[in-house]
Each structure stands twice: as structure tokens, then as C-alpha cells.
Amino acid sequence: MLWFQGAEAPRSSEYSEQSFNTKKECIDYIFWNKGDLVEKLYSVHVEDEQGNNLKTWAFFCENRFISIEEV
Predict the structure, then answer these.
(1) Of 27, 58, 26, whose CA–CA distance to 41 is shortest?
(2) Can you point out the beta strands (E) in the chain?
């Protein structure tokens, strides 16, 4: 989740370089790789489309299981 100076609402951005089998794996990855993640985040999202500077951010793990119906 990204917050920009002067923006009315936060925005989200996806990190698709890594996937995890459990929420614990995701949380552990964020903890042990936070420095690298912050550098990548800031290099890509230093400003939004309106020129607002990145103010703060939050990392979170999201479950994206896809349900497939049986035929």
C-alpha cells in the first residue's frame, strides 16, 4: 500500500517477483528482505502520476487462491 503527499487516497502496488505457499513464508520474506524491498519500492514509486512524492508505505501479504470448479 502506497501513500503519496497530497493524494486523496492510498494506492496499492503488486510485488510479483516472489510467491509463497503460506502467510508465514511471506511475512518472513518481508522481515528478512525489507531493505531490498524498500530500495526497489522507492526507485519505482518515488512519485505518482501527478508528481506527488511518496510519503509512506506498508507491506502486507495477500491470499490469492483461485477456486476452480470441478466439471
Answers:
(1) 58
(2) 2-4, 54-57
